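Pasting as-is:
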Amino acid sequence: MCPGSREEVTRARRWTRDILSNHPCADDAELIVSELGSNALTHTASGSPYGTFQLTLSLSPRTVAISVTDEGGRPEEPRSTEADPYDTHGRGLSIVMALARRLDITGSQHGRTVTAQLVAAPEQAGATTC
């Protein structure tokens, strides 16, 4: 469980980097953790003064599943939107969708889990990028 602060997203990103170290999906996973963690704080009760979010990593030699669970607070399901070229926000879920092989969103307005699955190509099993 991570406290709902911006600093905690930085720590979650660092923790992801430490856990995955030389995994071929490490770079993409780190970016996805940053985007999903930031979205949880910005768009849900996870960003409230006593809010939290939960980060879970599941991995194998070629895959990583990144799950971020928020505290809810919005009735609508997260969705990707097209950001104006001059916007400074609004691209998070689109970035995640571009990087992930699969994206699942489960839960309700009382808390959702967004899971992004990364899969390295067979020739990348020994590489350092996904």
